[in-house]
Amino acid sequence: MKILVIGNGGREHALAWKLAQSEHATHIYVAPGNAGTEREDKVSNIDIAVTDIPHLINFAKDNEIELTIVGPELPLSLGVVDEFEAHGLNCLGPKKQCAQLESSKAFSKDFMTRYNIPTARYQNFTEVDKAKMYLKEMSLPVVIKASGLAAGKGVVIAQTMDEAQSTIEDMLEGNRFGDAGCEIVVEEFLNGEEASFIVLCDGAHALAMASSQDHKARDDGDKGPNTGGMGAYSPAPIVTNEVHQQVMQQIIQPVLDGMKNEGEAYKGFLYAGLMIMPNGEIKTLEFNCRFGDPETQPIMMRLESDLVELAFAALNEELDEYEAHWNPGTALGVVMAAGGYPDHYNTGDIIIGLDQAHQTNSKVFHAGTKRDGASIVTNGGRVLCATALGNDIEEAYAHAYKLVDSITWQNEYHRTDIGKKAFSKISIHHE
C-alpha cells in the first residue's frame, strides 16, 4: 500500500523510515519532507505544505493513498483528520476537537480538572492585571505558558516576581507569541523528574509506546532557554511498572473516557508530559496530540513491531488485540542544532560528514535540512538527531556521541549530557 506522512521534521523522518520497513508498505510519501526523507528507500518527498489540506486530500485521492499519518500539531489543530475522513480517507490522528488538548493549554487544563486528571494548580488569564494578582498567591519559581501552539517554546519558568510580571506583560501585551499568547496559563512549579509517556489510541483503548525522556532546556545541566527538545532516550528508568500502571489508569484512560463523553473518540497518538515527584506522586505537565520530537527517533529505533499494522489497529478500534514489541536495549538521540537556537540562528550552512558509513546501530534523522545542489544544508533550528542503540544507556550514549562527532557545520551546537541523568540508575522499567 501507499502511505502519506504529513510533516518535515525529525519525527516524520523517523516515522517514514519505520513505515518503509513494513512488508505492507510499497511507497511512503512525505509532505513536504526534508533532505533525509528523500534519501530513504521506498520514500519520496511531495512539495505540499502541512497546512495545505485541500492539496493534501487531492494528492491522497489521486495517488490511492491507503493510510495517512499526521506528524505535527498544526494540521491537527486545523482539522486535517476531520477533512480526510469526510472524503473517506484513512487518516491517523485526533480530530480537531480532541486536538485542543494541545492547541489550547487553557482547554487542556480545564479538561484535566473536569475529569480529575492530576496536574499542577493553575488559572487561565487574558488580562495582565488579573494574572498579576494571581501571582501573589503563588510561590516562586512560577510557570507561565502561552495557551496556543508555540512550537514547544511558549513556556517560561520565572525565578523572580519581576521576571514573572514582565513575562505576563510580554505574552499578553507584547505579542511575544502572537495569537498563541493572547491567553496564558499561570501554574505552580513542580519539582521532580520529567518523562514522556506516549500511547497509541483507538478511541477506547490505548497501547503504550516505549517510555522516554526528553531534554527541553538548550544547555547542559538543563540550563538555558526552553526549546522543542535537545535530545531524548528510551526507555526512561523513572517509568517503573508501578508508574506505568498509574499513568494508564489515572491519566490516559480518563482522557479517552472524557473525550468520548464530550462527543469525539480520541484516535491517534497521545503524549502525556509527566512530572514524577520525589514522593511518588505523578502530575500531568501537558498533553501533545502526536508523537514527540525528538522522542520519536529513539522510540522508532527500538520498535520491532510493524507500525503499519499498529496504525490500522488504531483506526479499526482493535488495539486491545495488539501489543508492541521493543528492542530490549536503550536508544538515545542527540539533537544537533544551529548555533543560537531557539532564538536567532543561521540557515544555509553546508553539513559535512553525512555520507560517511555509520554503524548499523546508528541512524541520523534529519529535521531542519534541505538539498542545495549537491550539498545538504541547514534549514531550521533543530537540524539533525544523531540516534543510536546500545545494550544500556552508557553504550547508547557512546554510540550516539560518536555519530555526533562525525558530522559538523558552521556554528553547530549540541548538548553533551543527553541521557546522563539515567547513568547508574538501577530500575525495573516497563515495556
Automatic annotation (TrEMBL):
Pathway: Purine metabolism; IMP biosynthesis via de novo pathway; N(1)-(5-phospho-D-ribosyl)glycinamide from 5-phospho-alpha-D-ribose 1-diphosphate: step 2/2. It comes from the Bacteria. Residues 212-231 are annotated as: Disordered. It catalyses: 5-phospho-beta-D-ribosylamine + glycine + ATP = N(1)-(5-phospho-beta-D-ribosyl)glycinamide + ADP + phosphate + H(+). This is Phosphoribosylamine--glycine ligase. Belongs to the GARS family. GO terms for molecular function: ATP binding; metal ion binding; phosphoribosylamine-glycine ligase activity. Its EC number is 6.3.4.13. The keyword Manganese applies. One of its GO terms (biological process) is 'de novo' IMP biosynthetic process.
